[in-house]
Amino acid sequence: MHLHKASVVAVFIAASFSTSAETSQIVDDQHIQKQRAALAQNTNGKGYGPQSPRNIDDLSGNNPNTFSIAPQSTEMNLCNIHFHKNAEHAGGEFNKFAGNGDGNGFGTGYRYSGSLSLSEAKRFDSNVCRSDHGGLNAGDTIEVHFVHTTAKVTPGATLGACSNDATVNPQLRVETQVFVLVNDRNALNFNQLAKVSKRNGYFQATNMPDDTGKPIEYLGSTTGPAYNTKGSPYQVTWSVRPKVAKVDLLTVGNWCKDNIFNEDHAHGVRNLVVNSDLLSDAQM
Prior knowledge:
Elements (H helix, E strand, L loop, with lengths): L4 H12 L12 H15 L33 E9 L10 E2 L12 E2 L6 H4 L6 E4 L2 E3 L4 E9 L22 E11 L7 H4 L3 E3 L2 E3 L11 E5 L15 E5 L4 E4 H9 L27
């Protein structure tokens, strides 16, 4: 079926940013296994390209479909910034499994596997960036997606900001950084990290960390829990940094109150893709 641009954008946004009603129920391993089996069945022989997220410590994959690696992010426009509670990817310094969660992307993912001082981990009385699924506090992990596009666009809300009438199928690259939230006013300031300005004619997040290891680059897809049982048809070049940076929790809370992306909470996490037939060969 041919989809008009508006339909494509609607599907793209819904799949990448889906939510579900709050629940305290934790699903068992069998539930996750059934989701993975459904994903395998729904993609088998149908031509789906490599999927995301993945374990960045394992660079191998058997998916035969390929597409052109997107340009470097410095030659693309930043179009969106959002984050997920717990890392969607695993490996590096974020390989502590958070658990199965509710089966819909909340309460799962991967956490910072290092240690914090008592003062850094001291929790505040209330969470920041609150939603129906809870909020964030000191010690929590987030994976931030700095999304870039080859389309000539202005940064804005949702992944719909990454295309326009002139370019409905742009190349996409996600610069990915995992952070641990700390109770420390001397830690990184998220408002500065997410500050957008123009450099060489492109919109850029010029303060993204550059000291968190050489990114693992691979061909993949969009993420989000809507794709736990079906393949994502979108083509994305990923750059995932292996080291975690510490960021001041209060600055994340302030950013949630006021940013050009209309982001005010953490998004859900897609199950880690472990089926090698749905993974590409990654590069260091």
